[in-house]
Amino acid sequence: MQKLSFRQGLAQILNLLLVLSSAYMGYKTLSFVTDCESPVVVVLSESMEPSFQRGDLLFLDNRNPSFDEAKVPSVFEKIIYGSPVGIGDIVVYSLPDRPIPIVHRVVKLYESENQTHLITKGDNNKIDDVAMFPKSINYLDRENHILGVVRGYFPYLGMITIWLTDYPILKYIMLGGLGLLTLIQKEEQ
Amino acid sequence: MIVDTFTNRGSTFFSKLSTVLFFLCAVITFQGVIQRREVELDTPVYVHYAKYRSARFYHAFRNVRQQYAQVKFNMDADLSELWDWNTKHVVVYLVASYSTEKHEKNQVVVWDKILSSPEESKMFMKDTLSNIQAHPFNEYSNQFEGKNATYTLHWTVSPKMGFLSWGAGPGSYEIPFHKIITQPK
Predict the structure, then answer these.
(1) For chain B, which residues make up each domain, given as ranges?
(2) Rounded to whole angstroms, how far apart are CA atoms B30 and B9?
């Protein structure tokens, strides 16, 4: 086996870092384009079954343009330009004392010129979310609590994230594997 | 020099497979937007009445007594055209819309249903009451008097993979809220 030179090792490590930073930059670009701090989230509970199962990936959008009220935006326009939160939209929101965001459907919407209040409910839940809110909150606020609106989804891919969280050993196996692959991989001459 | 080994063949195969799968998913995702299915409904909802009275629900607004409304309606809507090979569920909901001094737009879901097949999407219902347990219909100002609402059927199409899409039928006539007079005990 050819002896691994120091320079070659550095080149391999640099290549791995390039791959990782490209993924990170892609994620941040998506975050910027959608005005959403977490444009991709994983479903962790069953409250939105049967539409979303545990382990599904959701793609979010948090842009809030003002539309001409008479014109209903098409799905294409919603995806390209974003749209305000509407009744029946599935939103991701966070509450002050809950670390994990919640994905539920808007069932009550109150809009005025400078403020939008709403109440959500999980499709698989019997009652709405008011009982989950802290005492000081009766309505969710569009600006303060809503992280994004669900635009699309992909099944099963999020299970990888859940497994990595539930079984921490898998993290080290994966990182170790990546490291070994980087060092062992030969460059074609 | 390229070494032709099982490892190289396997690597090439899975690399090509992942590329093909990626483009297949992209095609499925975007065809759902380009080839979107529409439904035109002709007055799907007829509302008999909307009544309200003071009541208390343990799970609604911290068990505080306030006015809650209930709606009685007929529905005749065929949403089976929304289904194609990539459709997973259609969620339909009846939305009450009205204006108040404080909010130009108030929209409240009063009834909903999850449709799991095209056959189930042909809906015909008579004298149906809105689901007041799942969707307690209260007003932001806690005052229904003098207000009128229109009722619209909305739907969300959940795909097996790709973008969600939305739709709505035409609204009903404006229906005023009536107070239920109860005998004192």
Answers:
(1) 1-35, 45-179
(2) 32
Instruction: Find which of A61-75, A80-94, B1-15 is predicted with most confidence, using mean pLDDT.
Output: A80-94
**Is the CB of residue A137 less than 8 Å from the CB of residue A47?**
no
CB burial readout A126-153, b (16+ within 10 A) else e: ebbbbeebeeeeebbebeebbbbbbbbb
Q: Closest Cα of chain B to A153: distance in Å? A: 5
- Listed by number, the residues of chain A in 137-166 with a beta carbon closer than 8 Å to a beta carbon of chain B are 138, 150-155
How many whole angstroms from its chain centre is CA B161? 19
- CB count within 10 Å of CB A157 equals 14
Q: What is the pLDDT of residue A76?
A: 65
Give the pLDDT band (50/70/90) at residue B43. confident
Which letter does DSSP use for residue A188 in this model? P
User: For residue A160, which of A75, A16, A12, A57 has the smallest C-alpha distance?
Assistant: A57
Fold of the domain built from segment(s) B45-179: Immunoglobulin-like (2.60.40)
